[in-house]
Specification:
The complex is a heterodimer of chains A (about 260) and B (about 300). In chain A, about 15% of the residues lie in helices and about 35% in strands. Chain A has about 260 residues and is α/β, with parallel strands linked by helices. The longest helix of chain B is centred in the C-terminal third of the chain and has 15 residues. Chain B is globular. The chains are: A alpha/beta (about 260), B alpha/beta (about 300).
Chain lengths: ~260, ~300
């Protein structure tokens, strides 16, 4: 898949709350094809402490509207600057980078997508892809409290949405892996993205229930396209770059203690 | 348009812009972004006699105007390079130069011997300056005696252009340069990364799995420039300059300081097309100042 470095235009910066912004990007040219799970390396201008690009998941692509969505959580100076961008500003992206999720073999497969915090970002795009191709998805989305649950209305367009919060302010109280849906049903395919402890818990559940399971990792990166070898994760094939061999990995390939 | 051809000893370059080892993969990683055959050369990832997994994650820390890395020479070994990677890069119409590293002198010799007979590889860059491996690497490059010894042995085994990559983690880099020149190095390249460290104060832990790592990026440029100037004024062999080059102006500064060619490193991560921009910028500079050839500005610093 051909990679590009392009200046995209901010069509809208939708401030979701004081921690999260949804950047809706567009271009005068047709956006290149992208796949769910892929990410962009975003250059942060005017932030003296931000030297490297920031890897950001592709949250959603609307080809008809020629829109690319990036969901940003403020975690440092770079993401803060990104969240301050206004409509009409440009943002330089190197994209699309990385691999994609695996399509389930049959349309009747029971599919679970589990996201936590800003880790929900690639699951929206993946959910939209699955829905378009006739699959039925269940989403379990979790956060510390209701402020960390994002884009619920968007997810509802593509499947059944269940939520958990640690403080009980929305949905069931507890972690995503404690949701009653996981006890009530078995799933054939599980896809997850979020904090590492959450993904490990999901991977443990998938292992116990013999489900196919892919996780989307988020390691710190310099380049994003396999040149620097900084973002490696330990796998059954040795150290592999998360940027080129991932970010999506089957849990059987990872050397996780689960 | 000025003439950009330059020779580094026996090595003929179509222009002085090359990419640094460990920052450009093997070349194809960048071919979506620009025609990589336009640049003067590609220094491929540090290659060792046998497969190396490198250091544990985390291997990278962002720093003010730069980054620390502790990759630790992850590569699949020289045989894998020759048999599997070389066929995918052999048609790139530029110099493919292999950066060679090792834990022992014998590792260096054996790796260099294997590459000596490869037609597509016109030169090796002897890495005696990697700060991220426990054995070998920088240990060879920080004393005149050991630097001279490894160059002397590799010189016997390798007949083509032998470039020696120097460490800045020394008191007097000119002494090391003179020592490797005396043992038959055809040229020197500098600087490798500076040994540095990053701490996560919240966790009270080092950021890197190896505690220390190599600093690169514009943060190191003034040091690199000073060292290139010192070395260029000490040795007779050509000098290849690098360290924090982000744009054409930076590259021209290195040429003026005495470098016959330059390598772009960390900047490739931020702008994958930077090498072409530097090349175009050098061209524009030469035209604007009325130079006929890039050779006219090498060491042309007026002091």
């Amino acid at each position: 898949m051909k990679k590009f470095m392009l200046d995209l235009i901010i069509k809208k910066n939708e401030v979701l709350n004081d921690q999260y912004s949804l950047l809706i990007l567009s271009s005068s040219e047709k956006l290149p094809e992208m796949l769910p799970g892929q990410f962009a390396e975003v250059r942060v201008d005017n932030s003296p402490t931000t030297f490297l690009r920031r890897p950001i998941s592709i949250n959603y692509v609307d080809y008809e509207a020629n829109e690319l969505w990036l969901l940003i959580q403020i975690v440092g100076d770079g993401t803060k600057k990104m969240c301050e961008l206004k409509a009409g500003n440009t943002l330089n992206l190197v994209f699309p980078l990385g691999n994609t999720f695996t399509f389930p073999e049959n349309k009747d497969a029971k599919i679970l997508l589990v996201g936590g915090g800003v880790g929900i970002a690639p699951l929206l795009f993946w959910g939209s892809y699955l829905k378009e191709r006739g699959y039925n998805c269940n989403f379990v989305l979790g956060g510390r409290s209701k402020e960390n649950l994002l884009q619920l209305c968007e997810f509802e367009r593509f499947g059944n949405v269940y939520t958990t919060t640690e403080d009980g302010s929305h949905g069931e109280k507890g972690f995503v892996t404690q949701h009653s849906l996981l006890k009530a049903s078995n799933f054939d395919y599980i896809f997850t993205c979020g904090p590492t402890p959450m993904m490990k818990a999901v991977a443990a559940y998938a292992t116990q229930t013999k489900a196919f399971c892919e996780v989307s990792l988020e390691n710190t990166m310099a380049c994003g396209f396999g040149a620097c070898l900084c973002c490696v994760t330990d796998t059954t094939e040795g150290h592999l770059c998360v940027c080129t061999e991932g970010p999506v990995f089957n849990i059987t390939k990872l050397k996780w203690q689960i | 348009m000025a003439n950009l051809n330059i020779n580094i000893g026996k090595l003929q370059l179509k222009n002085p812009v090359m990419t640094a080892s460990g920052t450009f993969g093997y070349g194809p990683e960048f071919s979506d972004f620009f025609d990589v055959s336009r640049i003067g050369g590609i220094f491929v990832k540090g290659t060792t006699l046998r497969d190396r997994q490198g250091n544990a994650y985390p291997r990278m820390a962002e720093t003010p105007s730069g980054m620390l890395n502790a990759v630790g020479l992850q590569n699949k070994g020289v045989d894998y390079f020759i048999n599997h990677i070389l066929p995918t890069v052999k048609d790139i119409d530029t110099n493919i130069i292999v950066n060679v590293s090792g834990s022992t002198i014998n590792d260096y010799i054996e790796t260099a011997e294997k590459l000596n007979s490869i037609e597509k590889i016109p030169a090796i860059e002897l890495n005696i300056s990697c700060p991220n491996v426990k054995e070998g690497g920088m240990a060879f490059g920080t004393s005149c005696l050991s630097a001279a010894q490894v160059v002397k042995e590799v010189r016997r085994a390798y007949q083509k252009e032998l470039i020696v990559k120097l460490s800045p983690n020394v008191t007097d880099i000119s002494e090391i340069a003179l020592a490797v020149e005396a043992e038959g190095a055809d040229s020197v390249s500098l600087i490798n990364t500076l040994l540095g460290m990053a701490i996560d104060s919240e966790k009270r832990k080092p950021v890197l799995s190896t505690i220390t790592g190599g600093l690169s990026g514009p943060a190191v440029k003034p040091i690199a420039l000073r060292m290139v100037w010192q070395v260029a004024n000490s040795v007779k062999i050509p000098v290849i300059g690098m360290g924090g080059i982000m744009n054409a102006a930076d590259a021209i500064e290195f040429l003026l300081a005495g470098a016959s060619a330059i390598q772009i490193g960390t900047a490739n991560f931020i702008d994958p097309t930077v090498a072409i921009k530097v090349l175009d910028g050098i061209n524009e500079y030469l035209d604007r100042h009325g130079f006929q050839s890039v050779t006219e500005i090498i060491g042309a610093l007026e002091v």
